[in-house]
Amino acid sequence: MNDIDAWVWWLVGAAALGIGLVVTAMPELGMLAAAGVAAAVAAALGGDIVVQVLVFVAVSAALVAVVRPIAARHRSQRPQLASGVEALKGRQAVVLERVDASGGRIKLAGEVWSARALDTGHTYEVGQEVDVVDIEGATAIVM
């Protein structure tokens, strides 16, 4: 054990954390692996064990403090490119057949859709523009 330099042990530890990252998909393990590589560099440059541990702790803390909030912010954002029915919500359509609470037809994104009014007391006449607020199955809910 004394035959192997400290920097090799740090790299072995970093590799083990990297494997843990791949197996568990926990990004924190990747940050700890990067800190292990930084500690290996400190060991290769001749730093004693105290310096190596301080480098490991400082880099770990910095990465966790900086990267985690950024990752959490990106994770909570809605996708920028909506597709499918999500892309149709909020678009405008033209009434082809009178639309009321019981039904009707609209032209939405170049296609004819069945539709019904969101407000049960409201009616939309042919040629009128409406806004799509939701899609339920194959029926557009408009207002």
UniProtKB/TrEMBL annotation:
<protein>
    <recommendedName>
        <fullName>NfeD-like C-terminal domain-containing protein</fullName>
    </recommendedName>
</protein>
<feature type="transmembrane region" description="Helical">
    <location>
        <begin position="53"/>
        <end position="71"/>
    </location>
</feature>
<keyword id="KW-0472">Membrane</keyword>
<keyword id="KW-1133">Transmembrane helix</keyword>
<dbReference type="InterPro" id="IPR052165">
    <property type="entry name" value="Membrane_assoc_protease"/>
</dbReference>
<dbReference type="InterPro" id="IPR012340">
    <property type="entry name" value="NA-bd_OB-fold"/>
</dbReference>
<dbReference type="InterPro" id="IPR002810">
    <property type="entry name" value="NfeD-like_C"/>
</dbReference>
<feature type="transmembrane region" description="Helical">
    <location>
        <begin position="6"/>
        <end position="24"/>
    </location>
</feature>
<dbReference type="Pfam" id="PF01957">
    <property type="entry name" value="NfeD"/>
</dbReference>
<keyword id="KW-0812">Transmembrane</keyword>
<feature type="domain" description="NfeD-like C-terminal">
    <location>
        <begin position="85"/>
        <end position="142"/>
    </location>
</feature>
